[in-house]
């Protein structure tokens, strides 16, 4: 097997950008449809989890109020198995 090397200047046609096809083929369209369907399913599942967590959070917020949120100052509340502060 041999390699043929061209001697001389390169063709001017090779330096120009090639034209891209703007209309997708059947397999490209199938990939786009399947990808978008999978993305939509993931979005619906993630949104459902978020709605479930928000619905679970609202009654807890109503019962405990904002006092149950973590505090940035002061000592933390003791755990149930810890001895009470003296």
Question: Can you walk me through this structure?
Answer:
The protein is built from 1 helix and no strands. The chain is mostly helical. It has a domain at 27-59. The mean pLDDT is 78.
Descriptive labels:
elongated, 86 residues, mainly alpha, 1 helix, single chain, 0% strand
Topology of this structure?
Blueprint: H1 26-64
The total strand number stands at 0
Number of helical regions = 1
How much is the radius of gyration in Å? 32 Å
Beta-strand fraction estimate: under 5%
Proportion of residues in helical segments: 40-55%
Q: What is the averaged pLDDT score?
A: 78
**What composes the largest sheet?**
none
Secondary-structure content class: mainly alpha
The dominant shape is elongated
Q: Can you tell me the residue ranges where pLDDT is under 50 for at least 5 consecutive residues?
A: none
> Which sequence of SSEs, written as H and E, runs from N to C?
H
End-to-end span in angstroms?
A: 90 Å
């Amino acid at each position: 097997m041999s390699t043929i090397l061209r001697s001389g200047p390169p063709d001017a046609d090779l330096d120009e950008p090639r034209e891209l096809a703007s209309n997708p083929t059947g397999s490209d369209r199938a990939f786009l449809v399947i990808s978008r369907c999978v993305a939509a399913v993931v979005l619906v599942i993630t949104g459902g989890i978020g709605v479930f967590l928000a619905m679970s959070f609202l009654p807890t917020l109503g019962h405990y109020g904002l006092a149950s949120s973590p505090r940035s100052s002061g000592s933390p509340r003791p755990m149930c198995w810890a001895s009470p502060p003296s």
